[in-house]
Each structure stands twice: as C-alpha cells, then as structure tokens.
Amino acid sequence: MKISYLFAKGILCATSAFAITASAGAQDIATDLPDILSDDADAPYLPDFSYAGYGYGLEPIPNVSRVIDVADYGAMPDDGVDDSAGLKAAVAAAAEIGGPVRVQLAAGRYHLTEILWIESDGIVLAGMGSGEGGTELHMPRPLNQVDDGGALDEVRVYLERYDKRERQPENNLDVLFSEYSWSGGFVWARYPGGRHATYLEEMDRPIETVTEIASGTVGERQLTVADASALSVGDVLQIHWHNRAGENGPLIAEIYGEDRSAFPVGSRHWEFPDRPLVRQATRIDSISGNSVTIADPLLHDISDALPAYFARWDHLSEVGIQDIAFIFPENPYFGHHNESGFNAIYFTGVHNGWISNLRIENADSGVLTDDLANVTIANVRTEGDHTAHYSVHIGNVHNVLVTGNEVFNPTVHTFSFNTQSTKSVYQRSTGWTDPTLDQHAGANHQNLYDQVSVHVRPDSETDTGVPSYDLFRAGGAGYWKPGHGRYNTIWNLEVIALGGVAPDQPFRILEASGGPDARVIGMAGNRELLLDYTPAPYTEDLNARQVNVPSLYDYQLSRRR
C-alpha cells in the first residue's frame, strides 16, 4: 500500500495527513517493489549504499590467528592491579612484530587508567566476549584526568579562541565545551602524527595531490585522470572536491540541489576554500591508460566546472577491536557538551577495520569516529543510567557500516550522521530510551538508516492535539546547516509508541531541521504515523512495512554479488 501525503510550504500538514491516512492499518504490508528501485530511467535517484563496511561490503571480518598474550607483558585480570603498563607493552610488542596480530586479553577484569594507543596496521585488540564470563576493561576515572600527550590541544585552543560554550542560564551553567564531547577515547586508534580532525587554519598542512581527475560521473566507478603514472592498483587515496566558487558554487548545488530557497546553507560551506568540502576515500582497482576504476561509486560528478583530484591519505588498515566490555563507574551527568571523558573508543584514520561484539556501560560516548573509510561496527550494546552524548557516532567518515547497535542508555544523539559523513549506514539497530535519529548538519549526505527501530513516548502535541515526537532532533551549528544533503535515506523505520498515544490516535513524527531530497521508504509502527519532515521528502510505503525489500543495504549488496 502506498500513501501520498499533502504538503504545505514543504511541511507535512498533520491534519491533512490524518484525513488521508485514517483508514490505513499500522501493520499494513507492502509487498510490491518500491518505485524508487525501478530500473526505469525516470525513477528517483537512490545511492548504492552496499559499499559500506569492511572490504566494501563483500569481505568477512578476518579471524586473526597470530596471538600476543597480554599476560606475558604483566597484564593479569582480577588481581586489582592497574594493567595500563602491561596492556601498552603488549600493543607495542604487536606493533614491533607487525600485523596481522591479535593482542589477546583473558576473561576477567582489567584496569585501564591511561590511553591505549593503536598506531600500527594489523593490530586487533580482542577479549573473550562482552557478556558474562567474558573480558572487562574497567576505567575508574575520566579522560580529563589522563595525559593525552597533547593530542587534543588543537581542539582545546579552538574552543577557547572561539568561545565555544555550553550556556544554560536556567541551570546556572556557562562553561567551555568539553573536548571530550566528540573526541578522545581510552582505546584510541590513529595514524602516527595524523591530524584526523581540523580546527585551526594555521595548523592546516599542505595537501599532497597525486593527480588531477579530468572527468567522472556520480554513481559510476570509472573516471579519467590527467596522468595515471603516479597511480598504482591497490592504492588507497582520497578524492577531494573543494568549493572555491562561494555560496552559489556548483559543489553546493551538487550537495543541496539547485533550488535552495526553502532552507539556508551555512557559511562554513564556503569559508575555507582550501579545505576539501567533500572527501571520498577509495581504492584504485584497475588502470588502463588514463582510465581508472575505483572501488566504490563516485559521490559527485567531476568536470571542468566541478573539479576534483586524488590526494594522499595517511591511514592505518586492518585494525580491529572485538569481544570486550568497557565498564565505567556510575558517574554524574554534568550536561550536554560538559562531558568529563568517560569515552570508550576513538577510532580514527582507519581504512578496512572493524569494531565488533562490545558492551559499553555508563559511558559519555561509546564509540567516536573520525577520518575512517570502510569500517564495520557490529553488535555494540551501550547501557547504564548515565546520559551519553553518543552511543556509536558516525562523523567525518565514508562507507562506515554500523549494524546491530543496541542503545539502552539515554543519549543526546543516539544514531548520528555527523559532519562530513558520506555513504554510511545504521542497519538493524534499536534505540530503547528516548532515541534520536540525529542528522547533525555539516555536508553529511547520501547516508542510510536501514531497518532501525525506535521505542518512544510523545514529547509534545500539535495545536490539533496530535501526540508528537521529535525523533530527528539534531545538533550542528548554524554555519553548517541544513541538517543533511541530498539523498539521505530512511528505509523500513519502525516506530513503537510505548505510551501516551491511544490506539485510534495518529502519532506525529517530526524532522524540523532536515535537508533536501530525503528518501523515506517504509515507515510503520504500532500506531498510525504522520511524518512531518522539512523540506518535504520523497516517500513510499508510509504506514506499511516493506517486506519485499526489508533491508535496502542487503538488497543492494545481493545485487552486487
């Protein structure tokens, strides 16, 4: 069953929507193939999301058999002794040997009071499981009491220089943002000397251009370069697009469309023309003359009007963290952007890596990301009463797959597509406590929520008395608005009303800060749903479960196979 909604000035009119959908059943099933998946040339554009994850979606996470036992370096579980030195020594020994190598922890509890740096290819930090009888890493104090060796000094200077503050007059709170709100972790992967997030212009480094790209078409893998002599099959590079043409440049049109009258585009999109506005990390798969095939489809066209080039990208590969519980003590919540740094993992500068089978308790953030490509984050459960900023965060990344993320703890941003994230996916994940689908602003585009389930209670009512929930309440500074670029997609979203909505009442789901050309296919729950999304998205199968294609990611991946 397909339902068309009425829109007024780009905003869904709740009363009109109710008139249209009152007879639809919340458990309706859509068995036909959505029009958007048609091979017809006139079908709306839909990105191919199946390249997200380890091995561009086609390769399983490897089982690394060469092992270093942390006990050989003095780290013993359940002895009440700080294990930081032993764990660091074991990781250093693994780096000396060279990967792939598994740094293996036994069952039981280890104590970690320093940052455990992973700065070499092929290192896998592994426990014996994240549940009962498994491995626990216990961090008794936050990162603001730990020496990071100056790793976050740039963001500290940035916050102070630009007076980035959390101001809550009603709570008598006026403090600088914490550098740990979106950065840092007790297990921290990074390329040595890498600068995986940029804040201060005077610290910008020269970009090493490998070769200019002459032409390419969005959604295709073939492109033409000016000179292929500097390229080799297997190279992993970044494609950079810059906006050097100001507020109305062609790259702005690529990201947000030609008609931007319905929403503002923030100034950060043109204030730093020497920084790439869009980056796509990819691998060179074949070279024939000046024709090059890359591993995943182009995010945007490349032409004289929309130039791009291959740039060097310093990164790690084959890094993994798996089968561990990260346990923080019960700790007070000091408010948004005022986190003390109970962060489990900061995963940065990695291509082809993974995080899997984790339980994270009482964290400020479970997993934070930066400067990644083709990483799988699977089966991460976050829990506890402490309010977290993020559970598993996707930001400044390309082709990252988060699957099986169970979020039981309260979070400010539950499932977050953050600044400059592209072609990434949250799949088969569930938010249990006031969840949000956070499209955070900042040139994030072509991302997918796929088979996500949220359990919610109404937080407001419209003037017509319709219960409402601001599911897409989002962050992001005004200079990075709107909430997202073109083609962010929501596929088979399940919304379960836990209370506050009568069986015969409609339930309004709000996205008040979105972006253009969103796709919403399949959205249903235990109540009649009204979608209020600004600007108006392309929709199919609202108030119906799409059972013919339950997962868009899986469907597109199966077609590639």
TrEMBL record:
Kindly state which keywords UniProt assigns to this record, in alphabetical order. Signal
Q: Does the keyword Membrane apply?
A: no
Leader sequence segment: 1-19
Superkingdom of origin: Bacteria
Question: What is the name of the protein in this document?
Answer: Pectate lyase superfamily protein domain-containing protein
